[in-house]
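Q: Can someone sanity-check these two? First one:
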Amino acid sequence: MAKNLKELRQELKSFAKKVKDFKYTDSALITFLLTGAIGRGAPANLFSDGNKVETQTKAINVSVAQQKKDFKKVKRENEKLIKNTDLELVQLMEQGDYAVKLPWGGWQYGVSGNYNNWKGHYKGRGDKVKNIKYTRGRNTSDKKTVADDNVGAVHASNGETITMNRTSLPSTPNISIANGIDSQTKKNAKFGLFANNGSIINAQKNWIKVTDSPINIVSLNNAKIDLEGSKVEYKGNGYALYTDSTSNSEGAINMKDATLVLDGKAIGYVFDQARPNAVSFNNTNIDVLSDDAVIAELTDSKSPLVIDVENKAGNDSLKSRLLRGNVNITSSNGKTNYKYALADDATIQIKSAIDKANLISDSDSEVFTKRFLYQNSRLHVEAYGSVKAELNTAQMKAIDDRFLAPVGLAIAGSSKSINNRTTEIGNKGRVFVDRTDAGQGGIGFYADYGWLNNYNAGKLEVEQGATHNDRAVGMYGTNNSNMVSSGPINVGGKNSIGILGLSYRIDPSTGLAIDPSNEPYFKSAVHPENFGKIDIMNLPWGVITMDDDGAIGIFTKNNSIDPTIKSVPSTSKAWLVGVNEGTITINGNNHAIGMGSSFGAVSNYEGEDPVTHVYHSGIININGTQSFGMYGTNNTDLKNFGIINVVATTPGNESIGMYGDDPKTKVYVLETENGTRIRNNSIINVGRSSYGIFARNIEMNGGTINVGDDGVGIYSQGPDVNLIAGKINVSNNNAVGIYIDDATVAPKPTIVKGNVDMKVGQNSVGYLITAANTKTDIKTKASSDVHIGENSVYIYSRAPQNLGGKIETESKIVTDGNNSYGIYSSQDFINRGDIDLKSGTGNVGIYSSQGIGQNYGTIDVGPSDVTAGKYGIGMATGSTAASMGTIENHGTINVTKNSSVGMYASGSGSKAINIGTINLEGNDTIGMYIDDHATGENYGIIQTTPAVSGTGIKGVVTKNGGIIKNYGTIQIRIAGGVGVYNEAASEYQVQGTNTSTTASSVGTGVNRTVAEKSITKVPAHPSPVSIPIPAVQNETSRVDTDIALPQAPKMPISDFTGVTTLNMPVEQAGHNFDNSSNNNNNSSSNNTNNTISIREMSTIGMYVDTSGINHTNPIQGLNNLPGLTDVNLIMGTEVTNTLNAKAVQIGDDILQPYNDALGSAGAKVNVDSASLTWKAHLVESGNTAAPIKTVYMEKIPYTDFANKNDTDTGHFLDGLEQRYGIEDINSREKQLFNKLNDLRKDEKKIFAQAVNEMKGYEYSNTQERINSTGNKLDKEIGYLRNEWKNPVKQNDKIKVFGMKDEYKTDTAGVIDYDSNAYGVVYVHEGEALKMGDSSGWYAGAVTNQFKFKDLGKSTEQDTMIKAGIFKTISPKNDQNGSLKWTISGDVFGELNSMHRKFWIVDNTFESKANYYTYGAALKNELGYDIRLSEKTHLRPYGALKIEYGRFTDIKEDNGQMNLEIKGNDYFSVKPEVGAEFKYIQPLTAGTQLSVGLSAAYENELGKLNRLNQARVRYTTADWYNLRNEKEDRKGNGKFDLNIGVGNTGFGVTANLGYDTKGKNIRGGLGFKLSF
């Protein structure tokens, strides 16, 4: 206190020296301390002897009153300042004793620890199961040894004999199997009897019934099944009796004196023509209970199967060729439409006449029509063969009651079709199809996934009878079918089609496409990408004739866009191809069409004659009205390279050469494609009143369009008319070359490129533009002179100028008669070509009726007929009030003929401007004629030619108020000539040069007129086109002959995660059936005939140790077991522990004791392996005294355990197999394989577990671990920047931290783990002068140790270093820095060390790898600090972080079963929004309590969990996929509570948080020191 008084006294003394009327005294000091005032003037000493009390009192009162006024004034000013600086003052107050931030630096140090506890898990794919560890001898779940799938009643294999003969046939089935389903493939899998590999099943007089399974009796690989006297009953989609090329050629299945019952879609047996006796028949009855059943499938195991249809009798009849043996075919339930035979992959040759109306029982016609199915085959009608299908409804139903129309021949692919080439109909004969009563017309040929060929010697006639039924089809193909014709096709009937191609078959009930996944060839096709493709060719000799209204020569429809097609993508329109190289003649009216398509591509092309090798153009003849040569809809491409002839019609009934029915269809007239020119010319001949092309989008690069009287060459509503080259010949009488009109649907501006050559006849138009609603731009540049006939126009436009369209032409125009116009336009135009008008009188080069017309070319004006008032004029405008425009000459106008005019303008709105040259020569010629208040301007030259001889030449004539402004030169240098000739009412403004002989004169009597041209053309309006597509329901077979045959039963085994699935062989018991107990069929005491008794068997097993060290001994005294029939030696795998071989012969010293013991037993010796992964083979000696010659042990390839539905595991097993035997027998990896060798057959799940452990799922979510490690650094760096205040301007903050975390997921194949991270972070932050602005840099390092929760307890240590910069700024007018934007960017690098440990059987193996990670991140954050009170804040904020990271290839190189992982990356995009609430309560001087509560939501939008791939290192095995997490799109809610106590020197904080992701509870504690 004393110190302060001394300082104050010293300051007052200094003040007294500076102020003249103030004197320092101790009383002045006391007065200042009491009142805060300094007295001036009279001495202000309260205690001086000379002052009276009264005087002092007044002085004090005055001073106090003044001070009160000053205080109030200052207070008001301070309140204003405080209001604006409140936040800064509070911020400074919160920092304790610091009133001003010091400019130098300060250091802060801290340490913290955080803990995370996940109460839930990451919601991934949801397929993880509870973690189970299978150990040896304790796995009750690993006991299944018999499969439920792929089994049957009796299975004999490897030469065994099973006898189950009966003395008589039972009255009910003694073996009955139904509804077997393979749980993996979802296909039927059960069977009745299955004999394989030379085995025998004796099953006489058994009744074997199988229902809804793919097969009943199977005999393969020289096995035999004796079913004599038996009854085999089968109902299903497969085979009752099945043999193949491996079956015994004699009696593989014996069906003598037996009965075969077929139901459903059953196939009775396989008739192999190379092995006709594989199934033995004699006195065999076949009872067919379903019309869908087929008695025999025809095959030929030695050569291609060929079946001739020749109308022969006896053994050469078709029935005998299809069936064989002594069989009696009946149907006990009266079925009549079942089939004798099915041919799949055969050639069927029709060499005689087939009449489908002839249904005489068992005739060749009846058998072929009704009893024979063929698929995936070649069906040929030979030169002398024929097929006639002239049927009424009753006859069709007698063949098949599902038929909709008569069909000549039909064929389809099958489950054996690998492409469409194996399925074909070829016609070299004659095929006649006709419906003889009312209904849908017939179909000539039909193919689904095949080829149709009508050769030039063949003939196809459909609906050519007395009555033509509607909707007939000549050739009909679906789904990747090819149709080719070089012969005649004649089809009658309305709406009929010569050749029809659809992407897919259609459902008759809906008309929609049938998805190809329903077709039998869907899975067998080698190129399924060709599904939906259609290719149609009418070759040069091909002639298609269509007789009736609405008929179509060729039509394709791309119905792949139907909503019913879901299994394959939509087919490109370029893949629906129709090409005509022959002749198509259309005789009907009303939308009859030569070629058409919906969303496809059709071409009228040219082709080579195969005999003369001369190329002929494809020809389309349209002979009816309201019909089209080529028709396209729904974005189709129409191309004409050939000839289209369109008949003459009348207005309202117009036919069209090429018609695009929608805005997207494009029409091409071409002579060049892909740089190659055709050999002939592309021609469209248009008859009277008809149209050549009617489409929105057109391209023409060659060819000729010949337009008849009143016809139209091209009609378009835009937007794209690209006429690159070619020629259009326009006839007379209102014919039009190119007609541009307004669009009625989806109008767009039109661009016309008109480089075609053109010749226009009389009273016709080259280009006619009537579009009044959308602008039209035209550019023409014909390669040859354009000739215009009498009263015709080259370009005529009525398009309004205000639409903005423009015409530009560089064509040379030549008139051929009188009264013609080069260009007549209401829109702006530019002429750059020459115009020759000299052919006749009254020709006008350019006429502008509304817009601005410019000439840059040379116009030679023709003569005039003064008497008729027809004047030759170069450029004109304004003959009436409705047609006043502007014309400009920038080129040359030669007026050499008498009485003609260079430029003509009439009307107050018309203007003629000459900037070029007008040459005058003939009598009474006029350069510019300006009439009726029009304006003329000359900036160029109007002159007489040097050789001028005419009289009465006038440079300019103005009349009736016309105005001429001369800025250029007028030189009329001839006697009698006048530069400017005007009437008195007209005006001549001279600003240029007039050097004429007579510069100007006033007079009357000069008259010139020009007629306005009016062209009226009513466009055709084709009515909507509807093309009905006929459905087809015919005898094309849909039998699936690709039946899954019985296999050695296998059982799918999965590890506990469900990720790894293996196929395990199922242990099977041997079969030995005996019939001895069933010999008494007369017994009434029991029903033994309906059961199978298995003879009691006695077996014994002995384990053989193969190590050669620990010898096992056989059981002695086997000869004392009288019932012993089998001795099973179980071979151990001990020998494999010391060898790397995959096949081992067991030593004689090991086997000898067993030979000695077995010699006296007299039992059969069997060997089996004790190991799951090895098998044993016995080589018998043939000596009963020592039956074992030797035993081989063979390793089962690991790839044999691969499940077809788990290709990833298959690739790993391939690598595992390649590694076997590579390392030394003393190596650790060899010990791993020994563990697998030692697995017993009941330890399948342990094997699956071991495979799963080795696959390396620790690498599944590598990117997630990298990202989470980086996030830990980000969190700590953000805490330093945001939570640690800056007491000084330059701040350095360092913190050491630790963090415990975990990760749990429900995704199988992604392993849970715990992690412990520790590290250090550093932040340097420098504040700017403006409050709220700062910048700085930061760095950090962290080591994160992961402990995986796999069976082997793998670990990984990741060490990351990160460095970055940041900057925080506030808006310029935000003085308090409340709104802050922070942007930061950093880079990181990381060293990762994986120590993978995997549990194999009962031990842990390992592999190690180091790899690297790198990446970069950018983060933006925007927050606003809202001051609620002196103690409370609310800060809403939003942030976006973008991060990219990548890890390098991982190559394990230290351990067993090393893996290689492909390097991969991730891309994180994480937005975050939230709000923070903070409360601050001062406790003592400089110490305060802070409480913060925050809530935020963040969501990962990037690709953080990209799929990683691995393979076994040091092998050529393929990569396999690891698992990956489902990307988190649900986001994470974060909630935090932070409590802190501290001052400027020390602080402590505690936090508690919760994350909705994983239901994570977080906690932490931190300390801070500041200096």
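And here is the second, same format, sequence then tokens:
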Amino acid sequence: MDSKPPSDKSSDKRRPRAPSIHLDTSAVTDHIDPHSSASSGSQDGTKLTTPAFGRAASSSSAASPASLDTLRPSTDGASDATSQKCFQLPSRESLEDLWRPLPQDEDLFTVAENPFAFSPGHLSRLLNPKSLKAFHALGGLRGIEKGLRTDAKSGLSLDEAGLTGSVSFEDATGLQLPEHPPDLSQGIQRTKTGQKMKRVTTHKETGGLYSDRKRVYGKNSLPERKSKSFLQLVWIALQDKVLILLSVAAVVSLALGLYQTFGNDEHQGARVEWVEGVAIIVAIAIVSLVGALNDWQKERQFRKLNKKNEDREVKVIRSGKPTVISIEDLLVGDVLMLEQGDVIPVDGIYIDGHNISCDESSATGESDLIKKTPAEAVMRVLEKTGPIEVKKLDPFIISGAKVLDGVGSCLVTAVGPYSSHGRTMLSLRDDSELTPLQLKLNILAGYIAKLGCTAGVLLFAVLFIEFLVRLKGSDETSEEKGQGFMRILITAITIIVVAVPEGLPLAVTLALAFATKKMTKENNLVRHLQSCETMGNATVICSDKTGTLTENIMTVVAGSLGDGSLCFAEDSVLNAIKSNDSTGAGTTETDASLFYSKFIQPSKLSSTIHEDLRVLLNQSIAINTTAFEGTEKGKAIFVGTKTETALLDWARNNFALESLEIMRSNHTVVEMYPFNSSRKCMAAVIKLSDRKYRIFVKGAPEILLAQCHKVIDLPTEGIHSSTLEQTHLDQIKGDISRFASASLRTLGLCFRDCDQWPPPRSKAHDDPSQVELSDVFREMIWIGAVGIQDPVRGGVPAAVEDCHRASVGVKMVTGDNVATATAIAKSCGLLKDGGRIMEGLEFRRLSNFEREAIVDDLRVLARSSPEDKRILVKALQSRGQIVAVTGDGTNDAPALKAADVGFSMGITGTEVAKEASDIILLDDNFSSIVKALAWGRAINDAVKKFLQFQITVNITAVMITFVSAVADENESSVLNAVQLLWVNLIMDTFAALALATDPPNDSLLDRKPEAKTAPLITLTMWKMIIGQSIYQLIVIFILHFAGPSFLHYPEDEQKTLIFNTFVFMQIFKLVNSRRIDNKLNIFEGLHKNHLFMLMATIMVAGQIIIVWFGGAAFVVTPLNGAQWGISLVLGFFSIPVGVLIRLFPDSWIRKAIETIVPRRFREKKAPRRAESYDLAAAMLDVRDDLAFFNRIRGGRMAFLCDPKFIQKRLQKSRSKSKSRRGSNASSSPVHPAVGIPGLIAASIGGLPSPDSRHGETV
């Protein structure tokens, strides 16, 4: 279509926007149509011609603000080459427009007594969108560094307190800041997009370290979300419609009672008709207060957990030394160190580094990987004349982005609510969503409430009809008739209150809150609540090896140098090698003795090898690493991954490795390639003193050996090398295999010298920053391999056994070779019952059907990549398994997301992995996963226990109230409204607290996981609910209807006895509900649940107080010893009745149901889902059928009419693909023939039309 000419845009009379350059520059270049260059003259679509870029503003510039607008790809169909604007020298008018506050952030530009050159508003112009114009106007990295009074190399001073003096904008940038009207607004608070941003003081200190920096730019934490006060929660609890209705009825009853008591002078004796109304109001208040207290405590608990979840440590440079600080202590002006896997917590400017690439999709919506350019390089490009390569210029670090590759550092320019991510998070603060179990229980509660409402309405209708019938001949006063009607109304409403299970959602919330708190103490930090529920039913755990099954305390204990002629090993390792190697190096004792004779003690290694090799090993280990030096308890340590610190400790202890800082200062690092799990190695390039370059690589031995063509042949005489022969390879691989058999993790070292960098024949030899490791990783010289010991954690074998006991499979996924993985798996107990061991490459090459066939039997996946882990998870899920998986690397994120429950490592895990996970293992220990499994089952059981208890009370309370009220001449229930509200308080709150806080016991792991389709209420639970309900109804009805004939108690004592018995049956039923299976030990773990005993004590004490002192409020009278005995004995009998019910076999009930209930009501036909149709499977069916056609010779198509022949010919091929066929799979071989024309038409239709190749350029 025709494009709109540029002149149309420039003619718009709109107010110019703040000038900036939108640096999603890949869109500028990558989205240009390939044919546009032919029609755009000689212009280059990736370059812009610019004049000299001076530092001072030129008043003579003719550039208008419109011409300095944000650089974006054209939104119409025209060629970008003709619509791009020139990046021109900013005029005074454009600078004024750049620094002019927008309505929503005008308060950020004025800071009282600002000792820095820039306000938060100035720095905010760097981003949103990314603006090179603002970057240049602020003086680039040097100007920002000076304006923030920091140093890009040494960072902030550890001694900085209050700053004296100030730096002006002009001092820092060389430009004069345009004048704007003063605005003395203070503070910052970002609400929703477009709303005004106000300043708040995030740090209230007036003195102390970094006080001015915190006052002006704030701390790296968002203002705490204002939580609801306790009174607000009480008010919310009172908004319940049923409680409102009951409150109105109670007020009317109170008014009538007060009139009867005080407005009528003719009555005799004490009359307390008003007490019932007051008691109901008090009961409503107590229910609301208790519910609000629970909500308040729950909110506080989850706030603490969220704060702990958000807290993490980052590495910064302060006073020239790497320092680890809390993320909340990051400040503007800090130099933040970036590593692969980091989630960037602040906005900043990229200082320098190696191959930093970021995923900014969460911040900008762009899915492309953005490679960062150092700020100094960007500034040099901007200030030179001629074409500007806009595609590469991106020095901006955005908060919320993920570092997917490289290492480097950035200068922090915005923190907390001033940063891009902080503003977004403030605008998106919402209440947390309900978990699946909460949603399921809410639905169930709705059904129960509807049944309760139906019972209440039916009761009201029946009693109201009786009331109307009796009105005609009644001699009661009008007040008494009104009070009688109100009693009917209140009884009906109270039934609804009792039937509505508001305690059901409370129970799961309390269970989750209690479990997450306890799980945190047991090193499981829960990020997503639903993961607790899911983990309880996990069927498979796919675990990493290093740090999870092992201790992650690594030590170099063995090694092979050069061609294998010199090896070292500790005695324990050598003994393990001997025990695993039955024949040694050969078939005779002489050969075996010769093999072991080349081993020396590690302590003698330094004096045995040549000095040049010692220097080479030190260089290889100390330079090719991302670790750094730190201190812990006054002792110098290495900070980094355990593998790298193990190598550094080995070099320091054996080869007198000097300080890393000195080592690195003596060698210029030209390029670094951080470890990547896909290539399984890392590399560093240094410049030597003779102007040559040396490349060091370390990683998986088989990967390195494949790229080596030479080997150091005499380790004791120097670093002389010779061609790597097959005999050398066999010797080296044999050594590595023996190390692996002793459960050692092997790591190879190699190097290569080259005369120039980049070396010849590399793909991007013109630009050193674009050289990939694959371009130079060849023709290496083998140095040697080391064996690193990482012992199995002490509790892991027992934890694996617990998983097997719980019918949960455990699979180990590791990057180690097969021999090492097998040895570790045996030590952990993973191979006790056999199982398959595979390499990741072999597993990856299997078809989906082959993979599903073996995945259940797979125990160890060695030499695997994160993608293999994700494929494993998907394969298991396709088999109906509920999968938990562990991960620590950035590339593990897809597997963690794909799994039903993802566990990330709290110690070694990257921030990307933690963000993708559901639970963080704070100690990286496999045993903690088993604890999470037990807690998950405990949560599900707690909800079911409460459900079993509450439904029983619902049934009995509603039935007793309904039957007794209908049978009574005065339409009054044996349990009045206040008594029922007390029962409701017991049922909803105290029982929820008691049952939801049961900790997991040993027997939880003695059963199989529940299926996803398992019902919430099992047959065993229904058996207990119905059995207990029948027992309670029989007891109450006998006491109520037959009791007066053999007990001969006064009416008030009789009713009090019934009320007391009913309550104690619920209390003992609470103890009985601690089991939801048929096991008889209901007291298991009771002594550990102190809250249960406290709640039971409160219920008993409350009932005693009510009976003795409740009087007119509860309409009770004190009972004597015999009556208390009857209540307690009948209540206690709930426990032996529960034993009898559990002894009754479930199979009898199931058989009775199958006999009585017709099959069509018992079996639900599964709905046919359209998404279950698998196109790939259909194509495979077509392939099988066409193969059948191919086998028919001579045109004997008449055979197709014979179904027996068809079945016989297709049976073999059909059996292989049976699992992939749905119910709609055709057995007719003619169907593919019918579909062939459609396939041909679709394939032809998918080709581009001839006209499209010669059409107009878009």
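A (reply): Looked at the second one. The mean pLDDT is 77. The CA atoms of residues 1108 and 1118 lie 5 Å apart.
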